[in-house]
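Hi U.,

Before I forget, here's the chain from the pilot set. I'm dumping it here mostly so it's searchable later in email.
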Amino acid sequence: MDLVAVEPRGRRHCAECRGGPLPLLVMADGAPHCLDCADLGHLVYLPRGNTALTRRAREGSSLSVVVVRRNARRRRYERQGVLVEEAALARAEEACLADADARARRRERDAARRAEQDVRFTAAFATELLRLFPGCPRDRAHAVAGHASLRGSGRVGRSAAGRALDPGAVTAALRAAVRHLDTEYDALLMAGVARAEARRRVSPEVEARLAGWRGPDD
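Structure:
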């Protein structure tokens, strides 16, 4: 069973040494005692919030005390932190810092790996786009691939079909780029034209541009 110290809501004084008001007290024989009189004065307070640090500090401390405070509205005591040996807390902090460094290095490796994957995927997307539309300028193809395949963008290149380099998804990415860059579509939207109507108006121009870029067998 856990030893418990209380954060008092009112001004309380130690029944033994008469010191106070007490920031923390321990009840013994029905009376409040300060940490020194309860032989707990050598412990240090660790507020709640870092689960790993608290667990390690308690595991490494030969003596620990749970700190609670009365919640009058909920009519219950709620945990605020723990009292542990200072040396145990220091060791726990060092272990958590080592873990944080390891996690940071892992995040860096993961980020580098994802960046490499993204470069390869964007290149593959551009290659497939140029296979389907050999007349498309290469700089346009690479720009479309980079835009459509941006990680976390939710664009067509990051969809399941896009990642599989489905011709429909690749074509949709190029169609969207042509719509925005080579037609009055954006101006129509800014003028208040509904999206479906704006797309209908520019569709012939978009499809003509795509047809001009398609390969002879397509």
